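Here is a complete protein record:
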Amino acid sequence: MEMASAAEPVAAAPPQATGRWRDQARKALVAGVVIALALGTWLRIRLLIGGELDYDEGVYWQSLRALHAGHGLFGSVYSSQPPGFLLLMAPVAGLVSHSIVPARLEVLAVSLAGYAAASALVWRRVGAAGALLTLTLLAVDPVIVHESVTLQADSPATALGLVAVWLSDTATAARRRRRNALAVLTGATLALAVLVKLFAVVFVVAVAVIFIDSTRARLRWPDVADMVGGAAIGGIVMLAGLLLPFVGVWGDLWRQVVTGHLAAGVTIGGISATEMYREAPLMGLGAVGLAVAARLRPDEAIVGAALTVPPVAFLLLWRPIFPHHLVLAAIPLTVCAALLVAAARQIWTRVRPGAAAAAAAA
């Protein structure tokens, strides 16, 4: 067989072949999304309509029922979370007072918004295949599944934090007027996440890194200053709107939300080895994705680290820690796992000319 000269160019694929490949890739993507959604739905339905999923559910449900009976939050109604959580759950939870399912459905709805934001963030930075991997992990990870239908603040707060990160990333690519509006929404959403559960403050790091990192692409420092100012305005307005109505019971709010957690931290809490093993695959994928991207896709690795390292540090340092807290790191880890797809694509881009030349010479 005649060997091709090294100087000869490798023939490009005909347009028809490229078109067929794109159609097949699009069909595979749609099929993957359908399968991921079907798996996620099946895994959640049996939990959604089942019995108690966590001790905290009963406390939150009774607090919601007391709110609908006209009692005041932090006065006669106890809440270990900031006011955002119960106020966010109250509209739907009160529709059927004898069932906890509507409240769980609202937790699921907010969680789905976070999953969409995480997938959209990955799609923009990594591509459709990476977004599909993120969506699949979000659909099947044990902790993420359990928390998405449990009446607790962890999943909604984390989801809203991811929405804020996605909004900040979208803002950096928008024109000035839309960019500033998205920055305001970023701050408002981030403040709402913190007012649902305080640990969502860790997402401030990712938002700040995305804003600052945008100066390496197309924005100038005055543009970043405008976004930071807009985000601050949005955050202040949200904080004021949800906290000012509770000025009269501020002491009770502080004792229930802050002092109670600080006191509990020295006496209770813990995550078993079994629960950690269940998350080992996701933690491994996320860690490897971040490590590989640091070498091949440093821009995406910076964002991935800003999104993941603060939650992991919180889980390592804060007490008490319970299994439901793991969702704070689990959802960001699905984004880091998708960086493996970006790295694989870059490796393929590097080796593809050689592979094509070898195939032509064979």
The chain has a mean pLDDT of 86. DSSP finds 15 helices and no strands in the chain.
